[in-house]
Every structure is written in C-alpha cells, then in structure tokens.
User: Fold this.
Amino acid sequence: MTANALLLNALLPLVAELSSQLPETERYRRLLAALRTVLPADAAALLRCERGADGSDWLRPLAIDGLSPDTLGRRFRLREHPRFAALLAAGRALRFPSDSPLPDPYDGLVAHHSGAPLPVHDCMGCVLQVDGQPWGLLTLDALQPGSFAGDAPLAALQAFSNLAAATVATAARLRQLEQSVHNERQRAEHFRRHAPLAAPRLLGHSSAMRALQRDIATVAASDLAVLITGETGVGKELVAQALHAQSTRADQAFVSINCAALPDQLVESELFGHVRGAFTGAVSDRQGKFEQAHQGTLFLDEVGELPLATQAKLLRVLQSGQIQRLGLDRERTVDVRIIAATNQDLAAAVRDGRMRADFYHRLSVYPLQVPPLRAREGDVLVLAGYFLERTRSQFGLDGVRLEAAAQAALLAHRWPGNVRELEHCIRRAVLHALRRPRPPTTPLGIHAQDLALVPSSKASTHPGDPAEDPGSLLPADPAASAAADPTDTGLRQAVARYERQLVQQALEAHGYRWAPAARALQLDRANLQRLAKRLGLHAPGSPPPLR
Assistant:
C-alpha cells in the first residue's frame, strides 16, 4: 500500500467521526492511534497550550500513546523545553536531527522498551492551528535514529495535523455546547423555580366549587398557613397552586414536596438541606426545600406522613423562620408561606398520638375542604369534556364525541377516586373506542361500555366514614356475580360481598402487603385500607401482618 493510500485509510475514519458524539478523551485516543498507523513510532502525544496564572506558557498533555502514564500528570513549561518552543515557532511540521543538542522532554518516558531508561533519538512534531491561533502540538518520537528520515514523513505529518486541528476544534465546540446546554438547564431550572406560576384552572360551576373558589380568594392574599383536606384525587395540589398564583408571592417559587414519598432518614435533608460530609453519600452542599422556596410558597403534600421528630423541627421553623442544614451549626432565616395537604383526619391523628397537636394547629390556621366529585353536581361532564379535549389533542384525533348513554353513565357513577379517577376513565375510554373500526372522517364516539363503569355503593352520610371512599370498583366478573346472587340478600350486601372477595384475594396474592395489593386493585393505598376496615378484613394468624 502506498503512503498516500495509507494516509487516506487513516484519515477517513477520523473524518467520519467528526460529527459523532464521542467523549473527548476517546476522540483524542483514536487520533493518536491513527497517527501511529501512518507514521510508525514508539510514542505520540497531543499537548494543549495554556497560559499559567503567572503569565507563563505551558503545554499540558491531553492524550498519549506509547508514553509512561505519568506523562498525563506532567505540565511542561515552554521556556524550559526548547524543542516545544521551536515547534511552536516553526508553525509547521518540523523534524529534529537525531544528534540535536536540544534536550528532549520525553527522555526516559517511552513506555514499551526494556532495560534502563533510554533517551529519545528521533522526534518530530507539528503545531495545530485552530481559528488561526496555535492550539497545541502533535509530537512523534522514536528510539531508532533515522525513523523519520526523508521528506515523506514530514509531509504526512503536516497533512495529518490539518485533520487533527479539525478534530480538536470539534471536540472543543462540543464541549462548549455541552457546557452551554448545562448552563441553559440550570437557568431554566432557576426560572422554573422563580417564575410566576400561571393560575391553574379550577374547572366547575357547582355551588361547592364556587364556595371553594371564594375561600381561595379570601385567604390567598394573606400569609396564613393553609391546610387543604379532601379525599384522594380531588385536586388538592391544584388548589395549592391556585392559592400561590393569587397571592402576593406569585412571582416567587412554588416548591412542592410529597412527604409520604420521603424515606425517614432523608426527610430532614430534603426539607432543610445538608452540607458536604453531613452523612454518608453527602458529597456536596445541597439546598433544602425551605431555602428553595425562600420568599415563595412551600407545599407539603401528604403532611400527615411526617415523623413526629420532623414535626417538632418543622414547628420551630414555622414559629421562627430559622432553619439549620444538616452538618452545619449556624442557622439561617427563610421567609416561606406554608400550604399543607392531606387526605387523613389529622384531628384523629392528634388523638391517636400520630401528630403533634401544636404542629396541627400551626398548620390549620385556615383549613380548606376540597369537595369530592360526587358533591359537585354538574361538574362531571365539564371535567370530562376537558379531559376528552386534552386526550384528543395528545392522540392527534380529529374529534371525540361523548354519546348520551356515556354521559348518563358518568353522571350516575359515584367517583370514589374523584377527579383523578375520572381522568383515567376518560383516557381508557378513548383507547377502547379506538379499537372499533370507523370511517376516517367520523368523530370518535365514546359509548357507555367504553367507560367500563359499574354502579358504586352509596357513600355514608357521616363525614370521614371510610364508606365515603370505597375504592374504584372493577368491572364485574360474570362468574363472581352469579356466585353472589343479589336476590338472596339485596344489592348492597351482594356488592359488599364481591368487594370483600376481591380485596381478600388481592391481599392473599401479595402476602398481605398494602401497596402491591392496592396496585393490583387499581386503588390508592389509603383507600384500600379504609375499604378493608369497612369490610372487616384482617390478616389471619399465619400470614405476615398487614403493613
């Protein structure tokens, strides 16, 4: 193979890789490996020009091939290495005679020879120009004198250095782009935390929703702590966002944290932050949610799940505004408006010793009760239309129509899972309807059977009774329905018996653990616990206890 063909074969892969997303070190490694196939040598190196703090010029190795690994840790001061200075001054490929009196910076650093350290006998190099300025050097070294004799090696090195300059320029630009993307992400996160929160739409025209909206408008302008209560799925976080959006803090951060999702050992770190070394895994300083929400609003969702010890520390923050990062002795002051939410009866939790009374009273300065969907007369169809339109847009459909029978089914259902259950129901119904063949220009019709709803048992008239949220009922199994003949004991008893059978089977199948059983039944864990309590279910002596 001729020298030109050899050079071409080495250059083509490098050209192809210019647009690829290779790590910078790998890009440089491949560059040197290709260089050594074109010009066989004992060692090659790529060095970058840098300006020191004292104003002196240095060369820093970025990649080496055939040199001792410690070479990457060295820094070569230019005025101490005349060969490097000569290469930069030449501005082109330059070979040093084997008997050159100039000291070689790589003497004794060639890695793959045996015996005592040997000086480098033959070397050449070339400056890399990027945007018309010297960027660094490409060097080749050999132990055998005369390895680079003649004009061909110099010409090949000069040609190779032009592509090498393109390679390092590409790597530099990719690094700049990555840094720019990182900076933009940080900026976007900052704006996300501090940009004004758009007022969320609390859809509905029922008297219950109008009363809630009046309460929100009343308390939003103040800095009072607000406790939002309501069943699972009623939209408590949406109410919290509306409170923030209508407050004087609307142009500051709205920070949300789900207290139920926090491991006990990380609660304080998440809320108050930590410093490096505060605990195993704390590799850097970190702001807590209170600092992130400074001058804004902190939303504590599922606040009833907080441990008692954390409640005591939170109470102090609510009283004084003083927080202390884990691992740090000094305190700092924050200005945060607290909004909390729960689906639990916190007054009962206080009586049971699961919540501090002083913490509860500090949170519930202004309580807001979000009505369940079944208490919002007429709002079901309004919300269904909103979810239908959003689903239509997401699926790219031309039109979706809710048939009259489907509307009647939606109005008849009790919605134990509230607005969240309705949203999921509408999404499933659209998917079911898409399975039916229809002319391309015909709007997609949602039929009653697409909703897969069954009659729900009536809610108890006693607020807070578990029967208010009996859980999302699954479509009835014909075999099970036949086994539970409603003519024997009546419809309500038959439904309760069927519920008991489904819940018992799910608990047994999942080792009497609440979370996986709730997922299998498509229920919220708290709803499943209330349902099991109402049905009188408990773990027998042999399986593990319910948890």
